Amino acid sequence: MASGPAPEPAVGVETDSGAQTAMGAALATERAALKETGGITDGAVAVGVTPSTPRRPAGGSPADVRPERVRSTDPDVFGAPTGREEEWRFTPLDRLRVLLDGAPSDAHLSVDSELPEGVELVEVPSDSLDVPAPVDRLSALALQRAGSALVVRVPKALEVEAPVVLRLTGTGLDQVVWGHVVVDVAEQARATVVLEHSGSAHYAANVSVLVGDGAALQLVQVQGWADDAVHGAHVASRLGRDARLVSTAVTLGGDLVRLNETVEFTGTGGEVELRGVSFADGGQHLEARLLVDHSVPDCRSNVLYKSALHGDEAHTVWVGDVLIRAAATGTDTYELNRNLLLSPEARADSVPNLEIETGEIAGAGHASATGRFDDEQLFYLQSRGIPAEVARRMVVRGFFADVVEDLGVRELEERLMATIEAELEGAFA
Amino acid sequence: MADSTQRAAGATLEIRGLTVAVDDKEILTGVDLTIRAGETHAIMGPNGSGKSTLAYAIAGHPKYTVTGGTVTLDGEDVLAMAVDERARAGVFLAMQYPVEVPGVSVSNFLRSAATAIRGEAPKLRLWVKEQKEAMGRLKMDPAFAERNVNEGFSGGEKKRHEILQLELLQPKIAVLDETDSGLDVDALRVVSEGVNRVRESGRTGVLLITHYTRILNYIRPDFVHVFVGGRIVDEGGAELADELEANGYTKYDGAGVPAGGRELPRGPVAPGAVTTA
Ligand SMILES: Nc1ncnc2c1ncn2[C@@H]1O[C@H](COP(=O)(O)OP(=O)(O)OP(=O)(O)O)[C@@H](O)[C@H]1O
Ligand SMILES: [Mg+2]
What we know:
The complex is a heterodimer of chains A (429) and B (277). Chain A contains 6 helices and 17 strands.
């Protein structure tokens, strides 16, 4: 399956500003902060901030800025990654190999759920589902090998206050676990869904997120894995007309976690907020690759991803692709990635990328900032008697606060903040 | 001025021959100053003369390198202390440009500071009341407690927030760096009253850096020091402030150190003003 119309001559836009409408308050604050610190780098060093696509030379011949995005359910369409491909170049493939080898397995994560009244949890064959197609070999393998899917269904027009919770726990590394979770929120429905991963596993999965016309979903995915877990997933969201999705990925544990998040719109008026928080410590590789595909008019997307890194070989990768196709007039999009390096050995790669095929948009912009602790903030807190390590914890906590304290599930917010604080305590011990 | 009982009970900050450099440029060229609990000292001087540098050096900002001299609080070596230790020892700096700390609420910040300074966390219920009353005295909207520290505060709101901290933390020595700048008439009065409440205890020595006599009408200084070229070049009582406001600093021209070179001092010279780098 191809990606729809081949991109017209596209322009790689590198900018940290753009005409804006309707930005989240958090984002507005972030942008102000970025302005004050001079845009691309704040604090000190920018690490690995390079555009993913060569800018088209002025007057040069029109050419695709990146290879066409292939989507298929057939793993062999993609070929085995070598590490030279754009989408694999940051990933330590040796550590992902166990998943890419594709050994069949019927191992499962153990599932525990909290289902508010009216919400269904069923298992169905994957091939009976109409879900967005895989984007790479790993997600195609996972779809094929999983065979069936765990479906959370929020029926039409049902509004549930209490969160739907799915706890997926890995029980060991002997076998790869192939998984498929579908979150299906039917038209006009409204729900909060929390997907929590923990334990030890080699887990490859697809998460298909379907938000019907006029529906609203607050989705939180927590990667709270044990240190030895390897997790690769394609989180594919499809929004109907006037649908709203707030999706937050919180990644704290695991040896390697690689999330490929895609968003597509099938009707006008859709709105997505993609948020992420990750804390990488020694040896962890946490990667998030996003593609927001604006193919219909008048949709909005806001991306806010934040990482803190500490320790030797701590590595985060954020690649944020936003594509505004020719038909997607009236699009309003903004993406921001901020990384806080807590120790010199950590490495954050950040690659925002906007491709715009129409001039008739409401706004498009992106920014990326990687910095160290703000010495002035630390000085201010310490000058009030607050010990250095407490001050550092307060600053990191504050760095994450706008994302974590806006999940809509109070108990989860508090628990995640406590987990982050525990990580920090470990980091600064 | 402090009477002898207060003096016995109160703290003394002694600055001797203090020289300070920023990025290898010498800014303070030999400062001598003694501040006792209950006393109020005003420092006035032209832009760029090093007043904020003195304030930051006392507080221990890492950007400022002390190249010579001493600072002691009741005989303890302040310069040997980390920034937070200085604060816990009783030194407080109300900054000219208070810093925004995203994601940290004012109430969390204040309680963390009070916990650090007092050595134990204040009881939550009592603390909420204490904070609320202190904010009320400074005519601050209670909503500020839930806002992020200094984020989006107006200039005047930031200054009020500094004085709120002063009142809650009750330091031994308070350095107020242009707390009056940017305040409207009413705010100036409210903020001055806050400072005066702290002074009335007699346990706090105040170093007030200002460009204007306006604030000195509310907070009468015991001493006025003229700061030029990185050091104190003249001293007097409150009346000196009026003279400075009328005549400016031209009479001290050349008393300091011009950019790019060092001169031997002319005019009134404070002891320790001439140092070698
Ligand atoms: N990084 C630096 N490199 C060189 N000079 C510096 C640096 N930082 C500060 N200075 C200089 O130090 C001098 C003293 O600055 P300071 O802020 O202490 O002055 P001030 O007396 O507080 O002035 P104002 O009344 O304007 O607040 C100024 O000339 C300033 O430009
Ligand atoms: Mg100053």
